[in-house]
Amino acid sequence: SHSSSATQALKDASSLLWLPTPRAVARTISQLERRLIELTMLLNTSVGLPVIQSQSPGLAMSSLYANFSDVHYLRGRVGNALQLPIARHENVVRELAGETRAVEEGGFLDLLGSPALSEKSHLDMGEGVASDPSFYFTPLQATTLRPLQTDLPVSWQMFAHPFYDYAMRLRYTGLSRGRSYNLTVVRCTIPEENNQIRVSLRANGETVHDLDVAPYPMAPLSYTIDSTTIGENGVLELAWQRETGLGGNGQGGFISSVKLQEIFQ
Questions:
Q1: To which H or E segment does residue 44 belong?
Q2: Which of 240, 9, 17, 10 is CA-nearest to residue 126?
Q3: What is the pLDDT of residue 235?
Q4: Which of 174, 156, 161 is nearest to 123 (CA)?
Q5: Full-prediction pTM beyond 0.70?
Q6: Which of 7, 108, 144, 232 could form a disulfide with 157 if both were Cys (CB 3.0 to 4.6 A apart)?
Q7: Based on the number of CB atoms within 10 Å of its own CB, is 18 exposed (0-12), middle (13-18) or buried (19 or more)?
Q8: Residue from 170, 165, 176 nearest 137 by CA
Q9: How far is CA 64 from CA 68, 213, 214, 222, in A?
Q10: What is residue 123's DSSP assignment?
Q11: Rg of the chain over all Cα atoms, to the nearest angstrom
């Protein structure tokens, strides 16, 4: 049955997740940790970490030394799932599959907080840091504003967001006209920092959702892009924008990833 297959899949995953770390991997991790300490010391002897942290709380020491692996998160998720009734195992497996970077044919995934441009190829980079160092017309990218949480995937704690009145955009070309798409956006709002900040989403100028406050912590939210929204030549532009005319720190509407998947009938 599907339930028994899902249970076996969770058991197999649990066995793999608790395997000892291979020596080569452990050695690489150790080298990266030492390099991180070196870079931290260099920062502290230049402008000083207190100065940097006053500008970005995400650079707190607890974040610098956080574990940048999803292993702890997955161990917890799979372990908790195995304690649930067997009938619920299939749903958990589907949820975990939805959190992966895998996309089906006709799908696209952008990790907006990734330092690699290849992992966010549809993100409009705006004017760029060189000509816009204050990020007024460039997507602002950051890591979590608090220590990394082991109950969330690490990739969900790196994000980009619109800054002040700038609309952050993703642009797709070559989509299938006459087809609808599922849109999954992993997003959040930090309650203590941005609880009044609302963000809207437009697709080719049409409202996907009006101004709203995202949940906390990061969570995937799903929408449908209707076939009539896809423009000529299969163009789709998604635009997130804060409520305009507000001051404050300019932040709000943190978006970790965007997955666009064609719906096959």
A1: helix 23-45
A2: 240
A3: 94
A4: 161
A5: yes
A6: 144
A7: exposed
A8: 165
A9: 10, 28, 26, 32
A10: B
A11: 20
